[in-house]
Amino acid sequence: MYYSYFGLKEAPFSIAVNPRYLYMSPRHRDALAHLLYGVGAGGGFILLTGEVGTGKTTINRCFLEQIPDNINVAMVLNPALDARELLATVCDELGVDYGHDQPSLKTLTDALHQFLLANHQQGRKTVLMIDEAQHLNFDVLEQIRLLTNLETHTEKLLQIVLIGQPELLQMLARPELRQLNQRITARYELMPLNQEETRAYVSHRLQVAGLGVANPLFSAKALSRLHRLSGGIPRLINVICDRALLGAYGKQQSQVTPELLEQAASEVLGNERGPAKNLALWRMLLPLLGVMVLAALLVYRWPMFASQEAEPGTEQGLSQQVPAQVNPVKSGRTVGASARLNCGLCFGLCIRRLRCRMFPARASSATVLPVSSASSTVGRHL
Description:
Elements: H1 26-41, E1 45-50, H2 56-66, E2 71-76, H3 83-94, H4 105-121, E3 125-130, H5 138-147, E4 159-164, H6 167-172, H7 178-182, E5 184-190, H8 195-208, H9 220-230, H10 234-250, H11 258-269, H12 275-307, H13 315-325, H14 332-358, H15 360-364, H16 371-381
Parallel strand pairs: 1-4, 1-5, 2-3, 3-4
């Protein structure tokens, strides 16, 4: 594969979760600290949200590796279940025997309650982790809330960690879920990496794969472009870098350029370019928006210009005196030229007045075009 061409021992940007490539940015460490604190505090619900590919699964694995030995963990990876199926899955994860092929919700809840009480008497804690929790429906969430009613006088018998995408926050903000939302004792929203963290993330993975520090595969401009294309999302960084390295290998280049990253992003992301696409769109629209704002301002101020009486020898009188000094020939060409000239003079006066209002210091030193000069110019054009 291409990695041997660059002096690497293995592919550095695989999307598989490999503990050897674990990179904990400051925000990832904060998220892990919130999870550990929530479990240690003995609260009801702990919430971790983040956009797709920001590293929630990585944090979950770190959390499972660092929890104390006196904690039993039930992990639910498929939340597309009804309330009874969810409870049955939790009992299976904890090794609870409910003794029926088609148990009812009461049977499952009673069996789980007995297990939690026995675990508490042995000085152990129980944690339920639900991944992709944004797919849970209302009935299941309500059943999960009821599980936190199982408690002693001092602490909850079951702590629940909800992990999901930002849509989960919108679900919990609904009025009918306010009781669950109020029981969340620790919450953290995992944000994408910033530009410096993106640089450190790429460097870390390359070094783990066997690249020397003195052999940069990505230039500084390329890394800046990478952050813009990926939006700082680690999963997108991986897929774009992997495709860019393959492209550099195909072209026999020793370094990844911004152009290769652009091509790689186009291939792996298609038309959905994410933050880069939005940025390019705004860059294209900003000049147009500026012109539209200027045109709207001129239209707004136009009645004021039209209502003011023109005085001889001034800018306002210029548009009135010019037609009087010109001897129009009764032909379509001459009349059309006069109309275009009048429109041009009026538009010029509008721009001049707007500039005078915006830059009064310059307006005081500006000279007014004499009427005779304008008339002679009109005569030459006609």
